[in-house]
Amino acid sequence: MSQREWDESDVRVRPNKKGSRPRTKDRPKHDDAVRGRVIGVDRGRYTAVVNEAQPDEHTVMAMRARELRRQPIVPGDLVSLVGDTSGGPDALARLVRIEERTTLLRRSADDTDPVERVVVANVDQVVIVVAAADPEPRPGFIDRTMVAAHDAGIEPVLVITKADLREPVDLVSTYRPLGMEVIVSRSSTGGNDAHGSLLVDLEALAELRRVLNGRISTTLGHSGVGKSTLVNALTGSQRATGHVNEVTGRGRHTSSSAIALRMLDSEPGTWIIDTPGVRSFGLAHVDPQAVVDAFEDLVPATAQCSRGCTHAVDAAGCALDAWVADGHAGPHGADRLASMRRLLASRSDAVEDVKELGDGGA
Ligand SMILES: Nc1nc2c(ncn2[C@@H]2O[C@H](COP(=O)(O)OP(=O)(O)OP(=O)(O)O)[C@@H](O)[C@H]2O)c(=O)[nH]1
Ligand SMILES: [Zn+2]
């Protein structure tokens, strides 16, 4: 990676099935600690909100305590802070503990890399942002992210941007039947806002607000799909959008560290965590069965697979092809099955021997 897209979240942690939970052995010596929510991570400095939604809410800058070693601390983390938690201009607190996380979104660099990276903590939903065109949408990325979200117990939401360039008919008809929120956004004809950002169609924004209100969400998507444009419209912030690298002349990642932002006119507790452009979302840490489970439209068929079915193209007794051919997975069933098989095949390189899947309907 050419730049620090992931900052602290690239801290290497040992793969751990149960999620990289911090040790929760209480250390009573910090009983004067205050609780905060990490909203920014930048070069070893953490920004946390203390007394959230209270009259005395304020942000605190903190450094990690040595005792935390290299445990990842990511946006969304609830933490304990000691020292100067006044939030004054030069105040620097010490972050001494990471509270247990409700959810933890992880990724590996690629499907065979056993090293997992923590992306965000405690989010309720993942907003997968793809463009209808420019850049071309990649259903593989959507499916991959859905698997990671499903595996982490986080709800996926799909936002398709740039519908003004092309109507995303196939994407909508593929993903809407799966029961997830699918929101189509387009630029409005009104031009740019005061900061030069493209204006987003109000109807799409209102729908997105409804889905995000009261919840903690994180956006994920490739560079250039319009994440910052959306996040700016929703939060009133000014994340850099669409900047062009002066050296190469090519579009580049303009937002380089993850940050949690508040949505305008929203209930307390509404946060949008904007992550930098994702190039890869490896699933090496995800169990093959969890990959299958994320394809909810296909899962029922696997009850009829032969015992230990790998669901590969040539797997004897795999019931998936017949299920799809019979139309049970809808008009895009074949694509869905192909996508699931690609994910299974690519990540199966990560394990020595392909794990057995399915229980033969027993
Ligand atoms: N036509 C059209 N262009 C859009 C739309 N949304 C965003 N764009 C443009 O697409 C380009 C990329 O948008 P950004 O918001 O910077 O994309 P991003 O996903 O944040 O990209 P990174 O910051 O690199 O991660 C900009 O030139 C935007 O003006 C849209 O709905 N329609
Ligand atoms: Zn099968």
UniProtKB/TrEMBL annotation:
<feature type="binding site">
    <location>
        <position position="311"/>
    </location>
    <ligand>
        <name>Zn(2+)</name>
    </ligand>
</feature>
<dbReference type="GO" id="GO:0019843">
    <property type="term" value="F:rRNA binding"/>
</dbReference>
<keyword id="KW-0694">RNA-binding</keyword>
<feature type="compositionally biased region" description="Basic and acidic residues">
    <location>
        <begin position="23"/>
        <end position="33"/>
    </location>
</feature>
<dbReference type="InterPro" id="IPR004881">
    <property type="entry name" value="Ribosome_biogen_GTPase_RsgA"/>
</dbReference>
<feature type="domain" description="EngC GTPase">
    <location>
        <begin position="121"/>
        <end position="279"/>
    </location>
</feature>
<feature type="binding site">
    <location>
        <position position="318"/>
    </location>
    <ligand>
        <name>Zn(2+)</name>
    </ligand>
</feature>
<comment type="similarity">
    <text>Belongs to the TRAFAC class YlqF/YawG GTPase family. RsgA subfamily.</text>
</comment>
<keyword id="KW-0378">Hydrolase</keyword>
<feature type="binding site">
    <location>
        <begin position="221"/>
        <end position="229"/>
    </location>
    <ligand>
        <name>GTP</name>
    </ligand>
</feature>
<protein>
    <recommendedName>
        <fullName>Small ribosomal subunit biogenesis GTPase RsgA</fullName>
        <ecNumber>3.6.1.-</ecNumber>
    </recommendedName>
</protein>
<dbReference type="InterPro" id="IPR010914">
    <property type="entry name" value="RsgA_GTPase_dom"/>
</dbReference>
<feature type="compositionally biased region" description="Basic and acidic residues">
    <location>
        <begin position="1"/>
        <end position="13"/>
    </location>
</feature>
<feature type="region of interest" description="Disordered">
    <location>
        <begin position="1"/>
        <end position="33"/>
    </location>
</feature>
<dbReference type="InterPro" id="IPR030378">
    <property type="entry name" value="G_CP_dom"/>
</dbReference>
<feature type="binding site">
    <location>
        <begin position="161"/>
        <end position="164"/>
    </location>
    <ligand>
        <name>GTP</name>
    </ligand>
</feature>
<feature type="binding site">
    <location>
        <position position="305"/>
    </location>
    <ligand>
        <name>Zn(2+)</name>
    </ligand>
</feature>
<dbReference type="GO" id="GO:0005737">
    <property type="term" value="C:cytoplasm"/>
</dbReference>
<dbReference type="GO" id="GO:0005525">
    <property type="term" value="F:GTP binding"/>
</dbReference>
<comment type="function">
    <text>One of several proteins that assist in the late maturation steps of the functional core of the 30S ribosomal subunit. Helps release RbfA from mature subunits. May play a role in the assembly of ribosomal proteins into the subunit. Circularly permuted GTPase that catalyzes slow GTP hydrolysis, GTPase activity is stimulated by the 30S ribosomal subunit.</text>
</comment>
<keyword id="KW-0862">Zinc</keyword>
<keyword id="KW-0690">Ribosome biogenesis</keyword>
<comment type="subunit">
    <text>Monomer. Associates with 30S ribosomal subunit, binds 16S rRNA.</text>
</comment>
<keyword id="KW-0963">Cytoplasm</keyword>
<dbReference type="GO" id="GO:0003924">
    <property type="term" value="F:GTPase activity"/>
</dbReference>
<feature type="binding site">
    <location>
        <position position="309"/>
    </location>
    <ligand>
        <name>Zn(2+)</name>
    </ligand>
</feature>
<keyword id="KW-0547">Nucleotide-binding</keyword>
<keyword id="KW-0699">rRNA-binding</keyword>
<keyword id="KW-0342">GTP-binding</keyword>
<dbReference type="GO" id="GO:0046872">
    <property type="term" value="F:metal ion binding"/>
</dbReference>
<keyword id="KW-0479">Metal-binding</keyword>
<feature type="domain" description="CP-type G">
    <location>
        <begin position="112"/>
        <end position="281"/>
    </location>
</feature>
<dbReference type="Pfam" id="PF03193">
    <property type="entry name" value="RsgA_GTPase"/>
</dbReference>
<dbReference type="InterPro" id="IPR027417">
    <property type="entry name" value="P-loop_NTPase"/>
</dbReference>
<dbReference type="GO" id="GO:0042274">
    <property type="term" value="P:ribosomal small subunit biogenesis"/>
</dbReference>
